[in-house]
TrEMBL record:
<keyword id="KW-0597">Phosphoprotein</keyword>
<keyword id="KW-0539">Nucleus</keyword>
<comment type="similarity">
    <text>Belongs to the HSF family.</text>
</comment>
<dbReference type="InterPro" id="IPR036390">
    <property type="entry name" value="WH_DNA-bd_sf"/>
</dbReference>
<dbReference type="GO" id="GO:0009737">
    <property type="term" value="P:response to abscisic acid"/>
</dbReference>
<dbReference type="GO" id="GO:0005634">
    <property type="term" value="C:nucleus"/>
</dbReference>
<keyword id="KW-0238">DNA-binding</keyword>
<dbReference type="Pfam" id="PF00447">
    <property type="entry name" value="HSF_DNA-bind"/>
</dbReference>
<feature type="coiled-coil region">
    <location>
        <begin position="148"/>
        <end position="175"/>
    </location>
</feature>
<keyword id="KW-0805">Transcription regulation</keyword>
<dbReference type="GO" id="GO:0003700">
    <property type="term" value="F:DNA-binding transcription factor activity"/>
</dbReference>
<protein>
    <submittedName>
        <fullName>Heat shock factor protein HSF30</fullName>
    </submittedName>
</protein>
<dbReference type="InterPro" id="IPR000232">
    <property type="entry name" value="HSF_DNA-bd"/>
</dbReference>
<comment type="subunit">
    <text>Homotrimer.</text>
</comment>
<keyword id="KW-0804">Transcription</keyword>
<dbReference type="GO" id="GO:0006970">
    <property type="term" value="P:response to osmotic stress"/>
</dbReference>
<dbReference type="GO" id="GO:0034605">
    <property type="term" value="P:cellular response to heat"/>
</dbReference>
Length: 249
């Protein structure tokens, strides 16, 4: 459909005599308001002239619709504003941005504004005019769809980041509870650490020898560990364990 749009001109061609007559005519209110809005330095963050001064660019359509349009045109409909631009022969020069141009809408050239007039339908060109309008409407719809797709991708990225942050937060919140549970168990049984150390050493020794310890021997080692803890004063042994109760080597 984009190739079909190339065949349509910006507006109806005029002769030098017609241009002189139009130059003496009044400026259309829509054109005058748009020119003033774009030229106002106070609105540069929302709408401003392009680098070559022959286009204007709406940088923030949302703010443009909420604040500028009601101030100049008594409505908030951005699509209606774009349709009005098309009616006066403006064209969208960038498919990814809301940037428009007209050969007589130039920065600092207010004397040319009378030449920006509504497009008139030529006799027998009804079908072509309808095709042009469909082409322009289709381009506007495609631009809106691309903008929505970009917003959705940004939203998905934010949601993924929030889920990752939630997982990290939950993991951080669970660590103090695990630590308190282990300390409570250690307070009830001060010999727990020593027994666990001896059991770990025994397990490593058995792995090296390729054999398994007998249950009776395991119980004897555990009893000796308790006796050793009591012989040292009955106090709690040093804490060499992680939250999960494994020895740091």
């Amino acid at each position: 459909m984009g190739s079909e749009c190339k065949g349509y001109g910006v507006g109806v061609a005029t002769s030098p005599q017609q241009e002189q007559e139009q130059a003496g005519a009044a400026v259309a209110p829509f054109v005058a308001k748009t020119f003033h809005m774009v030229s106002d330095p106070a609105t540069d963050a929302v709408v401003r002239w392009g680098g070559a001064s022959n286009t204007f660019h709406v940088l923030d359509p949302a703010t443009f619709s909420d604040y500028l349009l009601p101030s100049y045109f008594k409505h908030r409909n951005f699509a209606s504003f774009v349709r009005q631009l098309n009616t006066y022969g403006f064209r969208k020069v960038d498919t990814d941005r809301w940037e428009f141009a007209h050969e007589s809408f130039l920065r600092g050239q207010a004397r040319l504004l009378p030449l920006v007039v509504r497009k008139r339908k030529k006799a027998g060109a009804g079908a072509g005019g309808g095709g042009r309008e469909l082409c322009e409407a289709g381009e506007e719809v495609r631009g809106t769809i691309r903008a929505v797709q970009r917003l959705r991708e940004q939203q998905r990225g934010v949601e993924d980041e929030l889920r990752a942050m939630d997982r990290r937060l939950r993991a951080a919140e669970s660590r103090p509870a695990q630590m308190m549970a282990f300390l409570a168990k250690l307070a009830d049984d001060p010999g727990l650490v020593l027994r666990a150390m001896l059991a770990k050493e025994e397990e490593l020794a058995l792995i090296d020898k390729g054999s398994e310890a007998q249950p009776a021997k395991r119980r004897r080692i555990g009893a000796e560990a308790v006796d050793l803890a009591h012989s040292r004063g009955g106090g709690a042994v040093p804490f060499p364990f992680s939250v999960l109760g494994q020895v740091f080597y």
